[in-house]
Amino acid sequence: MKILWLVALLISSHLYALEIEDQNGNKIIFDKPFKRVISLYPAHTDLIDDLGAGALLIGVSIDLDNPDKFKDIPTYSYYDNAEKFISAKPDLILIRPMIANKFKGMIDLLKSRGIEVVSLQPSTYQELPTYWNKIGKLVGKEEASTRYVESFENEVAKIKAKVASIPSENKKGLFFETRHKDFLTTSPGSMPYTIIEILGVKNIAKDAKSIRNGSTVAPYEIEKILSHAQDIDVYIAQNGAMNRVSEEDIYNTPGFKAINAIKNKHVYLIPEEIVSRPTKKLLDGMWALGQIIYPNYFKERI
Questions:
Q1: Spelled out in words, what is the top-level CATH class assigned to the domain 166-293?
Q2: Whether the Cβ atoms of residue 57 and residue 45 lie closer than 8 Å to each other
Q3: Could you tell me the residue ranges of all domains in the chain?
């Protein structure tokens, strides 16, 4: 009888075990949600909070775009020594591939102390639902993550319906800048690139190729930008930690006076976090861009 009970217990624990695969190909198997979480990527932090699990956060990285949002939670950096993390007694540290590749030794040490370290970061718009669901599983908010995905997709459907009402002759030509210094634009499949597609905008740099495999940015030399000068009705630059630029910087760029958007004063900055951060803030980005590019159609948010 004891043997049957033990077998049943083992089968039961196996059936209820959860499993995800992180960005580095590591399989994480766990039988209950994690309870003490340190997040070293603002998107993870925002998402956990959005899913209603903010109380699980015992440490976060500094969010340069919103430095006061989680000011009551201790801050951590991947440059901190392992002891700082160990002494906080987390059961999960959420990172992203850039950290995983650069600090492998420290990660191995943390894992040897029984701390799960999981690397996640979607590089394309299509990966968003999977990313949101994985975070939901890790923090015990699977149902909330499912609702999160459904709510996002419903809002996107409304935006697409609005875009469908815009006559083709009213569609604008856009150049989207991700970094002014190197004349970088957004790469195919990335968050901003897909938002542009959803809004039905003519992406002048649609032929851009990623700077490297998996990158969300793509080089677009100034000569190529200027070759489309007459087709660029709107020039938008994401603004944030990755691109510290002003409208004046763009207007004063040598050669840019030939661009229609420069001539007509149609240069705009948009916060990086609402067009590039993989959370529902992307809906804010879609509406903000819609109001800039098609103000007559995006008057009031649905």
A1: alpha beta
A2: yes
A3: 15-147, 166-293
pLDDT tens by residue, 30-83: 999 999 999 999 999 999 999 999 999 999 999 978 888 899 999 999 999 999
Give the separation between CA 10 and CA 198, rounded to whole angstroms.
48
Dist CA 141 CA 253 (whole Å): 48
Contact 175, 261 (CB under 8 A): yes
Domains 15-147 and 166-293 share a fold: yes
Q: Residue 21's Cα: distance from chain center in Å?
A: 18
Q: 255 with 263: CB under 8 angstroms?
A: no
Q: Based on the number of CB atoms within 10 Å of its own CB, is 14 exposed (0-12), middle (13-18) or buried (19 or more)?
A: exposed
Taking only the tens place, the pLDDT of each residue in 172-209 is 999 999 999 999 999 999 999 999 999 999 999 999 99
The whole-number pLDDT of residue 154 equals 97
CATH of domain 15-147: 3.40.50.1980
| Secondary element (H or E) of residue 158 | helix 142-164
Find where tokens 């009031």 sit: 300
Q: Which of 123, 124, 149 lies closest to 135 in space, CA to CA?
A: 149
Interatomic CA distance for residues 16 and 31, integer angstroms: 6
What is the rounded distance in angstroms from the CA atom of residue 101 to the CA atom of residue 107?
10
User: Which of 292, 268, 177 lies closest to 224, judged by CA?
Assistant: 177
Burial 64-77 (b: 16+ CB within 10 A, else e): eeeeeebeeeeebe
